[in-house]
Amino acid sequence: MNVVMAWVVGGVALLIIAGLAFYAYRLWREVKRREAFKLDEVRRAHEQCLASLEIIAKAMLEGQMDLVEGALRCKVLLEIIDPALIQRRSFNVFYVVYSRTTHLHTHSARKDLTSEARRQEDRERQTVAEEFASPLASAAREILVFKQEWPASLH
């Protein structure tokens, strides 16, 4: 009976180990699947941000978009791709413009302003746009180069 009991306990132990090994394998495959999904999501987000950056940069260079608005949008998109990008010398002007205009109202808050306050903010935006017109145009051109050389341009 001792030998039979030992074989039964050994067999049950092997079944438990095999079951746990199968479960561990399934968990490992799920982790790999999720990692691949996450990498694909990041890749698609980068592609969408790059496409948006290209459109905004071209619109800025062609005078189809307000420079301050373009700078703010570029800052956000660059930070989505990699927060360190905004600290590059070629892109830092986006942060400078952001910091100079962060107190200005946008969207529905802007609509709530009196017409005089709105005109004052428009003058401020225009002053910043004029002051940074050349560096913003250079940064917009750098965005086009950045997008063209992607992903090597990330590092």
Structure description:
α2 (67-81) crosses α3 (92-101). The relative contact order is 0.10. The radius of gyration is 28 Å and the shape is elongated. The mean pLDDT is 93. The longest helix is centred in the first third of the chain and has 60 residues, at 2-61. By secondary structure, the chain is mostly helical. It is 79% helix and 0% strand. The termini are far apart. It is built from six helices and no strands.
Characteristic key phrases:
155 residues, 0% strand, mainly alpha, 6 helices
Q: What class do helices, strands and sheet pairing give?
A: mainly alpha
* Chain oligomer state: single chain
Shape: elongated
Instruction: Give the tally of β-strands.
Output: 0
Distance between the termini: 69 Å
| Average pLDDT rating | 93
Order of helices and strands: HHHHHH
Amount of helix: over 70%
Layout of secondary structure:
Elements: H1 2-61, H2 67-81, H3 92-101, H4 107-111, H5 115-131, H6 133-148
Short structural summary:
79% of the residues lie in helices and 0% in strands. The chain has helices at 2-61, 67-81, 92-101, 107-111, 115-131, 133-148.
